[in-house]
Predict the structure.
Amino acid sequence: MKIYNSIYRTLLGVIAFACVLTACDDSYEVRRVEPKIDVQESVTSSPQTMRMVVPLTSSYPWFAEASGDWINMTKYRGQALKADSIVFSCEENQSMDDREGWIEVRLMDQLSQRIKVVQKGRGSLITLPQSLVYFNRQGGEVIIEVVTHQEWQPEAASKDGFTFTKVDNGHLKITASLNASGKDQTTEIKLFDKDRTTDATLSIIQKPVDKILFIPLEKEKKDIVIKKESFAIDIPVTLNVDYECVSSGSWIEIKADQQLQGHNVQNVVVSVDIENNQTGVERDGFVVIKNKGSVVEASDTLFIAQRGKNQIIYVKPGGNSDGTSWEQAFGSIHDAMGAASNNGDMEIWVASGNYQFSSTLTWKAVNVYGGFSGTETKLKERNLKNKPVFKGGNFNFMNAWNNNGDICWMDGIVFTDCDIYKNTGMGCFEIYKNHGFRNCEFRDLKHGRQVFYFSECKLVNCLFYNMHSQKYLIRGASSQFYNVTIANSITDDTGAWNSNYFENGSRLYNTVIWNVRKSGGSINRALSCWNDVKAFNCAFLGGVNEPGLLSSNGIDLEADNSAPGGPHFTNPTGNTPDFSLAAGSVCIDAGDSGYPGTSVDIVGNTRIIGSSVDIGAYEYMVK
């Protein structure tokens, strides 16, 4: 019996020791992190559109979704066990009353938590549908609307010759006497709530004239930006003359206008409907309101920019945030492209500056626009003379695969400094179906096979120079080239099929190719062609009569830039050449105006200035 007890105690000891070893060995320990979300329970937003950032940490990867389309999610997923945030914005609340929604944060199927989102209504503010009131020389009285739930009072009963009377909580009466001064009489009046926590400012102008017609809005509110969807606008007009309205295009429709009642200064409303923008590109228009008759005595204009895409991803040098605004911009085009989706409702805006690439950029089906200073709200405000510079390295610069949607553009970019002189890949740039370059400059690019490969692409107002290849410079298959300038480049291959090579139905319009040489510098050869290639109103040095090319109205350039038959570039030599046209160029007014591709040239100058479009990327500007 003692023997059995001894054996039993020994076994218990072994088991206990094994348990201790197991407990000390992390490889056998089963760890489980408890699901946890640390985030505030509610947020409150003002009635105006504003960006909101809600700090968050979680024990597992998370994602978030909103209850309504008035809550626009920008950053809605993140990683575990680190300080993170949800980023969203609330669209402007047009209602007088507050509204509520929620954002639900989920840790897969383990846990979820709702954040209540409250957006204050317009009634929490004092809002003036018109913040500018005009009187003519005779004066009179005007009653304006005040939109609020707050009790309010004007800061003074009279000021600078005008009197102010609260009619009721929704209306203010302004009275002006005769203006005999011969100059503008102006003032401002503030409306305060009883606690002076919110206010609104009204400007009053009395003109020393009898006929009045004004849109009573501040200058910036007469140049508006709207989303791409259909939109209705009510334009307030202060006037005392019979009037008519003119819109700039069929996508802006005048639906109704109130008739003038007598000829005292009064407020009317012009109602306008904006069509859904299906072009994918921002468009600009206007509504002019003027007195009736052939002689314009009084008029005013509302300018309208309608987005082509609703979401903009912003990039600027030094940016290190999420790309949701200029203030929160990405610092890298690679990061911006990663945040974009193919054929999504978005585009990328890039501020001027230098961007050094460290790897090949894969261009998704998304428009990329350059030339911004970093403050713009409209595409038309950018400056094409101030393009951002994308710098490559000893790797292929960019690729873009077949895009089965609408064509997307790189517009207003400089590409430079790619050096990969080995026969690898399809070129520095390998670009396929429905991608295009517009208003772009390409320089100092070197590749051991071909610098560019374009298939089913478009190029408009582009400049290429200082390229060096073993075989082809630009190889275009089934592609179209409008107002392109190609110059000062060299190919090393001595065979027949080198220089620029166009094939399979490619078309060239108003394009100039000059000083493209084979190795040794003795032979200029603009291009070689195969299988239905046509050139219309193009100017080539060594290639107008190329076999396989059907050329119409072609110009055979001379090698001497300043010769009578030379292109007369402003300065084609040196470290910073200038390929704009100088006086006497055979390219001036020599293009086919049926194929300008765009209304401006590569630096934003008006595209057709003379009798016809010029050949090349630049329109000649009379000095």
About this structure: The chain is about 5% helix and 45% strand. Residues 392-557 form one domain.
